[in-house]
């Protein structure tokens, strides 16, 4: 019963702002920005993303779907998609993340340098993440933090303009 009550409270907390926000926009207003653009790409055994350039608008919502194409075991070949803050030392991040196997190869002490990331996808698996594109225009680098992959060239650019 207590559990149920907590769930109800949680829903109320989540829904009230939602309805309140909707109530404020009258007819003819632009609907809340709930459209999400889906961008799909593969990660290959050659340690590459099949898409290395994405252009997005500030504040746009996008979903990245990453599929690993491989017959190798996951421990040997897996990929993730990690969008880094601008101005991060990518090599340092990649090097420190090699040690962080238990954290999906994301260095816990450097997580504040990450804007958005997926889990690791082994061969045949698809992972995804939905996030809001940063407001600040410019180029953001996304990488795969599986050991050796960033240094092998597994990266791409998200351009916000
Ligand atoms: Cu990779």
Write the layout of secondary structure elements.
Elements: H1 2-24, E1 36-43, E2 53-56, E3 61-68, E4 78-79, E5 82-84, H2 90-97, E6 114-117, E7 121-122, E8 126-132, E9 138-143, E10 155-160
Parallel strand pairs: 1-3, 2-10
Antiparallel strand pairs: 3-8, 4-7, 5-6, 5-9, 9-10
Structure characterization notes:
- It is a single chain.
- This protein has two helices and ten strands.
- It has helices at residues 2-24, 90-97, and strands at residues 36-43, 53-56, 61-68, 78-79, 82-84, 114-117, 121-122, 126-132, 138-143, 155-160.
- The strands form three sheets. The protein has a five-stranded mixed β-sheet, with no helix packed on it. The protein has a three-stranded mixed β-sheet with strand order 1-3-8, with no helix packed on it.
- The protein is globular, with a radius of gyration of 19 Å.
- The structure holds copper (II) ion (CU).
- Copper (II) ion (CU) binds at residues 43, 47, 79, 144, 146, 149, 154.
Q: What is the count of distinct domains?
A: 2
Radius of gyration: 19 Å
**Overall body shape:** globular
Please give the order of strands in the largest beta sheet: 2-10-9-5-6
* H/E element sequence: HEEEEEHEEEEE
The poorly predicted ranges are 16-31
Keyphrases for this structure?
binds copper (II) ion; five-stranded mixed β-sheet; single chain; Immunoglobulin-like; alpha+beta; 19% helix; 31% strand
């Amino acid at each position: 019963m207590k559990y149920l009550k907590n769930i109800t409270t949680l829903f109320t907390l989540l829904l009230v702002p939602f309805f309140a926000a909707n109530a404020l926009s009258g007819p003819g207003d632009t609907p809340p920005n709930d459209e999400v653009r889906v961008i799909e790409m593969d990660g290959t055994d050659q340690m590459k993303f099949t898409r290395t350039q994405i252009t997005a608008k500030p504040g746009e919502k996008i979903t990245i779907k990453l599929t690993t194409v491989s017959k190798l075991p996951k421990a040997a070949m897996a990929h993730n998609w990690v969008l880094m803050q601008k101005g991060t030392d990518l090599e340092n991040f990649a090097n420190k993340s090699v040690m962080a196997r238990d954290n999906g190869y994301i260095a816990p002490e450097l997580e504040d340098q990450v804007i958005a990331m997926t889990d690791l996808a082994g061969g045949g698996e698809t992972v995804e993440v939905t996030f809001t594109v940063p407001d600040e225009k410019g180029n953001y680098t996304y990488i795969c933090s599986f050991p050796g992959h960033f240094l092998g060239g597994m990266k791409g650019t998200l351009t916000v303009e």
